[in-house]
Amino acid sequence: MSKPRHFASPEDVEQAFYEAVSLGDSDQMILLWAEDEESVCVHPTGVRLNGMQSIRESWRTIFTTSRIRVQAEAVAHWQSSVMAVHHLIEVLFVGDDPSPHGPLHVTHVYVRGAHGWRLVSRHASAADDSHQAMADSVPHTLH
Amino acid sequence: MSKPRHFASPEDVEQAFYEAVSLGDSDQMILLWAEDEESVCVHPTGVRLNGMQSIRESWRTIFTTSRIRVQAEAVAHWQSSVMAVHHLIEVLFVGDDPSPHGPLHVTHVYVRGAHGWRLVSRHASAADDSHQAMADSVPHTLH
Asked: Is residue B141 a part of any domain in this protein?
């Protein structure tokens, strides 16, 4: 496994997250999570994982069975010197299926530690069927 | 409407949130949200509301139609001097129905401003049917 990267901003971690998903790279995926036993990952299925090991195994299983590409759009964000929260809307493309899955509401929580920024929590859940959430999201670039 | 209260900690806001729900008090509910156009509230139905006005109207409608009591259990939390995130599991009791609804995964985001701590984001979604999420949550007191 490669050495942990230094992420200079929450945006860097987020970009690495979506790269890891599109590459199906569970090693890169796990490097961007904080080594925190409290780390939380809630999948859109309603399954919640706690801690690095469970989260790593879960993504490994997902990447083994599916190839996923994500279109993410920023909805809102809050940031302090050591902590950041991004709220996003995601649309998923699975395998060669051209029709989008989702949308999903996503809350990402980032914390800055000794080795830069890391993800400590991802909460993803299905948006309502009407897709209104997508329509009325205000697109804006993060920084 | 009463004057905004000063909340000395994220825990104070959270307690006021659950009080407001159990009282069905939409005035108290809205006072604990930050006056931030980016404020986000995702209901377990998958509907997302943005900004104070939409959030206020939504809770007013909920309180008009249902009487809700919530049992919340802390799963994980992260805190800095001006920002805090609480991840919780909620079980809902609606009206006189003794059977619990949920559980829900909940991510609360708090920000400290000129008038103390306020809620800026609530993301709630249904946990998986197996209720495993409830069983393996690690109960611990906040702090």
From this structure: no
